[in-house]
Amino acid sequence: MAVETSKQVIPGAFSGTALRGDFPVFDRPTGSGQRLVYLDAAASSPKPRTVIDTMADAYGHHYANVHRGIYELSEDATRRFEQARKAVAGFIGAPSEREIVFVRNATEAINLVAYSWGRTNVHSGDLVVTTQLEHHANIVPWQQLTREVGAELAYVGLTDDGQLNLDDFEAAIARGPRLVCVSAVSNALGTINPVAELTAKAHAAGALVLLDIAQAAPHMPVDVSAIGCDFAVLSGHKMLGPSGIGALWGRRELLDAMPPFMTGGNMILRVTLEGAEWNTVPQKFEAGTPAIVEAIGLGAAIGYLNALGMASVREHERYLFEHAWAALHEIEGVRLLGPGDPAIHAGVISMDIEGIHPHDVATVFDSLGVAVRAGHHCAQPVMDRYGLPATTRASFYVYNDLDDVTALTDAVRACQRLFGGA
Amino acid sequence: MAVETSKQVIPGAFSGTALRGDFPVFDRPTGSGQRLVYLDAAASSPKPRTVIDTMADAYGHHYANVHRGIYELSEDATRRFEQARKAVAGFIGAPSEREIVFVRNATEAINLVAYSWGRTNVHSGDLVVTTQLEHHANIVPWQQLTREVGAELAYVGLTDDGQLNLDDFEAAIARGPRLVCVSAVSNALGTINPVAELTAKAHAAGALVLLDIAQAAPHMPVDVSAIGCDFAVLSGHKMLGPSGIGALWGRRELLDAMPPFMTGGNMILRVTLEGAEWNTVPQKFEAGTPAIVEAIGLGAAIGYLNALGMASVREHERYLFEHAWAALHEIEGVRLLGPGDPAIHAGVISMDIEGIHPHDVATVFDSLGVAVRAGHHCAQPVMDRYGLPATTRASFYVYNDLDDVTALTDAVRACQRLFGGA
Amino acid sequence: MDNLYRDFILEHYKNPHNKGVLDPHDLHYADSNPTCGDEMSITLLLESDRVTVADVAFEGRGCAISQASASILTDTLRGQTLDQIRALDPQAVLDELGVPIGPARLKCALLSYKTVQGAVSGGVAEWPEMAEAM
Amino acid sequence: MDNLYRDFILEHYKNPHNKGVLDPHDLHYADSNPTCGDEMSITLLLESDRVTVADVAFEGRGCAISQASASILTDTLRGQTLDQIRALDPQAVLDELGVPIGPARLKCALLSYKTVQGAVSGGVAEWPEMAEAM
Ligand SMILES: Cc1ncc(COP(=O)(O)O)c(C=O)c1O
Ligand SMILES: Cc1ncc(COP(=O)(O)O)c(C=O)c1O
């Protein structure tokens, strides 16, 4: 069967089956002895060998602290680290790598903006807008900010099929917010938001736009310059890269005007007992020794994705999504969340299996070698909106194929059989 | 020569020459074709093969997001990640691993305390005390905090031989500070501070104590319970571990009472549109996906250090320090900073070579395969105190040996010859 | 198929013991696991000695593990004293379930334990250390 | 021994050209590299056309690279117009040094460039992009 499906080359795309050879995790025997069907990329993705090898080589042969070392090894490390910054900039269409700030993850990137830009630019009585389909990372920092400065936080609501309610959006924008925070792709529902359109409208209303591309950058072409947003945040670990590295992109003039977030070494030009002078961007926002090799690993992940081509990645996932959605749709007792239109649905399927708690679903799936996520996906307002405590979520990436879609639907049926008499 | 010195086993310690085999970087040919003499551990240390291999294995075969995954792979990753937290706690004598917060580096740990504890507990008119020998990471966050809340920041001065001025310390403590921030070992001078004594005095005066053990934990036994301090911070990359990982230790009741620093996923129990409830420690302070594999790598580094024994590590470095100090002392035109007493001097030697700028020194050294740091070492107040724009700093670690000491003194002489006629 | 969902657990889930609300009762406590929406409520009736459990019942909704664990745990409580119940080791509850419980499901498995502790400790209960922050 | 410190650089460092202060002068600018304490001051005298450099001198202290680069750069300025100097490519200054300059030493090598730019641009000079934030 695997042999057969390795021939499933989608026109213009690639074979997920074949790519599995690039990911060591698929050599791992599962506890149940079955092959691993990994359907949890939206939480974090496996790493291809090239990323692991690049990191091992960097740690082994090119490692030293960066930026201030006056010796070959440190210059080598610095060059590779800064090369990774260029790779990130190129990957998301940022005009300059100096607008790329390395952080731990998308969460830190949002907190950086909330602390630095937010505490400086959002005042009592101001409005910040986010949406009800955001990850907690794009909600709680804004709750904290607005509470602290006495501003208001408004949420754009959702339609029954998991899209942003555009009337709600228009109404919120009409109130003149300082900032609009929205994700390009929802991690809980898979919805692809019309970010260029939303950005244009927000700008017309005088608001800045922070785009959470944590679920978009790994899975489809993203060009922040073309979208026109002001900030964008991503996590390396969701896009084949290491843990511990992520990026904030911000327009240079915004970053230049912002005060630092964390302070210490590297981000200063001069420190005296009386005070300190800040370094220029991006160093101003990179206090202390950065995640040097993790940045280099992210660069390698971007290299791997670029070689596949992000348009092909999107096409591949869309293909899998369409098959999975159709097959799951046929199973009685399965409720699928989010829009059914593949043009606005990423490779993430959130479902409810009637009468079976998602935690039980995930445990049963695990016994079949199928790794999915069960829970609120750090998006409790989405769960509340659809009246569920949790959902079961399957998410696809480059190494998945139609066999995995079959494994998923088989697992749903097995689970239903097991709980049949409940 | 290397063969001969591999027999230099210090009584009770180990052979640095032999350990070099554990570090792949020493296989690297230098640009000048000479063997690499790495004397910059204080900036960041090379990584032993076991750390690199553990990480490659974790990325390859045990990687998934942690904490909420209901499948074998995620449980495996979670177990390894939490095991690393235990390793850190054990390594520094923390009573419980739940008091260990994973952060990117020591800098972030200090910023976390300054933002979370500081903004809650330091008010207008209060006093915070730091010292003139701190790394910028233990100065600038306190400048920012005290400026923001209208508190005062006082600095304990230094003696001519690079020790804390204890009269100054007593005088500062007598003024009843809220917090005393001090490093256990100075990165710029190598001074080992009497931290247990300082902590007892600060406590007697009603102050809490934050200990910067970034330069101590890698090089000597540290027991935060025995010292009695309240917070401690360290960076993994300085102790054979990966970049992108560090730790904050804090007493449980302090951490429990502190508000979160960054917010988002993982650190919450429940999020609604109205607000959020925080998770318990340490998760309350770990917003977003952590540096999972980097924590695991740090655990492996600690395993390596534990196998050597931290008392032996200290003994080894003390041995190298004594030889290096004595040999450099003999060279005319070399000024050594910091105390000469090896009992209070770690394996870090900061020097000024008369008439030659440290940047030139480092470049010449590099051409001889000797990697040292030249600059202000992120401790400009130390440089200002001794009237130097910069120093040349050599720092030792487990893989160094007497050959390296000889290479260092030879390089100093070569540099003097080259600039002789200046 | 799977050792977690072996018949024993599923049987308790499908046909729970001690399901309901005791009326009258001496002790009552309700709790929940906010991360997954599991809910649990327990009522206890005491003997005339005021320290020995005469009867127990639970109500709840949630996953099979949380419901089965409540069914199994409540089976063991009759005849025990409040002190004995307070001294219960959460590990014993896991052992009683007899199947491996991964870190992410510890709270599912221990919600009944926590709710019982709340009932016998005057309405105060914490997650056992092992399940904290998972 | 080392290609960075080959005789050429050391010779300029030990015996710098154009060292001093022009008095009188038409343009003057002083700058420093706070990270390493290098300091530089430049004076320029113009021809009667007010746009061509007649003479130049620098004073400074710091590392061999910063001082040698000032010596070498100032040698090239006589007879150039202010516009020509403003259009100078910092890479050309590095090339003129003729030895590889690592990222951490770019500011050493370009301090003289920055100071000259300050002098010919009315006292405003930025680090060239390549040396920024190093
Ligand atoms: C004493 C001391 N504290 C703090 C730091 C900051 O460490 P990091 O850059 O890893 O945050 C250093 C690093 O040089 C240090 O030596
Ligand atoms: C849309 C979205 N935003 C932000 C995040 C937070 O990412 P991280 O945990 O890497 O900070 C996630 C991760 O699940 C996400 O899906």
Keywords, separated by commas or semicolons:
heterotetramer; A: 422 residues; alpha/beta; Aspartate Aminotransferase, domain 1; Aspartate Aminotransferase, domain 2; seven-stranded mixed β-sheet; four-stranded antiparallel β-sheet; globular; C: 134 residues; alpha+beta; three-stranded antiparallel β-sheet; 5 helices; 3 strands; binds pyridoxal-5'-phosphate
Provide an overview of this structure.
The complex is a heterotetramer, with 2 copies of chain A (422 residues) and 2 copies of chain C (134 residues). Chain A has 422 residues and is of the alpha/beta class. Chain A has 2 domains: 16-46 and 309-418, Aspartate Aminotransferase, domain 1 (Alpha-Beta Complex), CATH 3.90.1150; 52-306, Aspartate Aminotransferase, domain 2, CATH 3.40.640.10. Chain A is 40% helix and 15% strand. Chain A has a 7-stranded mixed beta sheet with strand order 2-8-7-6-5-3-4, with helices on both faces. In chain A, β5, α8 and β6 (208-212) form a beta-alpha-beta unit. In chain A, α5 (106-121) packs parallel to α6 (140-149). Mean pLDDT of chain A is 95; it is low at 1-8. In chain C, α1 packs across α2 (64-75). Chain C has 5 helices and 3 strands. In chain C, a hairpin with a 6-residue loop joins β2 (38-46) and β3 (53-61). Chain C is α+β, with helices and mostly antiparallel strands and 134 residues long. The chains are: A alpha/beta (422), C alpha+beta (134). Chains in contact: A-B, A-C, A-D, B-C, B-D. At the A-B interface, α3, α4, α5, α6 and β9 of A face α3, α4, α5, α6 and β9 of B. One pyridoxal-5'-phosphate sits between chains B (105-107, 135, 137-138, 183, 187, 212, 214-215, 235, 378) and A (265, 288-289).
